[in-house]
Amino acid sequence: MKEKVMLRLRFDKADLTADQYINFCEKILKSLMNFDSYFSDFGSWNLRTNSAVHFRNDYEDFYDKVFQQIQDEEIAYINPNPEDKELHHNSISPFGFRTSYTPNSSVDSNANISIDVSPTSSSRYSFFIFEFPSEQIEKFINIQFAVALLKKLQIILQPIDGTILTKPFFHKVNKKDLDPPIGWITYIKDSLKIKEVSVNVVKEFTSNGVILILKENCPDSNDIEYVNKAIEIRDFLELK
């Protein structure tokens, strides 16, 4: 697989405080650590200092280091005291919070996880995006592993929709940001939209939605048959 593969989940906007956001990130990362040994540890990158960030194995320093990362002197944060614009643990950002993490940080890898929570005033949703590691891509695009990972994250994030696909495939198939993205493996919370899809795909109904699987192996953007199949599903859902 030469094209970069990603898992992309869209979930509800929320006015999280800095404290709530950091704890939310920690919950996600610890859940991934319990899912598979690949997520043995995580690192990050501080954009303000342009330097790598490493966390202790017991995560005792996670909160303080992420709090430092999300500080932005150009943002006027929302606090109980309207005159106070500084970032505190109970502050809300008018732009939301976003951080990125590198799993298995001791290995030279191009994998990346971003956790982007938008405020309710924003026009865009919140996103969790995981760019799969090229050095272990066969493991991550194994269909059983990929579906299990999607289900694990579904429990934590309660997403509206999500997909696993290559980046070029995403851009060929999906046109609008607010539409459910259709990919190799697609999750949609609103299962009523999917029941009438007549395209020949595997449908797995869960307690929280439905998972669609286009084919056994992850297609790339040159797999015209499956690009067209994904577009057919996309067009059907636009009419619902």
Topology (elements, then pairings):
Elements: E1 5-11, H1 18-35, E2 42-46, E3 51-54, H2 62-70, E4 97-103, E5 112-117, E6 126-131, H3 137-140, H4 143-157, E7 161-166, H5 167-173, E8 185-188, E9 202-206, E10 209-213, H6 224-239
Antiparallel strand pairs: 1-6, 1-7, 2-3, 2-4, 4-5, 5-6, 7-8, 8-10, 9-10
Helix pairs in contact: 1-2, 1-4
Alpha-beta classification: alpha+beta
| Rg over alpha carbons | 19 Å
Strand order of the largest sheet: 3-2-4-5-6-1-7-8-10-9
Q: In angstroms, what separates the terminal alpha carbons? A: 34 Å
- Helix-strand pattern: EHEEHEEEHHEHEEEH
* Unreliable spans: none
Question: What is the helix fraction of residues, given as a range?
Answer: 25-40%
Q: How confident is the prediction overall: mean pLDDT?
A: 89
The portion of residues forming beta strands comes to: 15-25%
What's the total count of β strands?
10
Question: What is the general shape?
Answer: globular
Biggest β-sheet, characterized? 10 strands, antiparallel
Enumerate how many helices there are, as a single number.
6
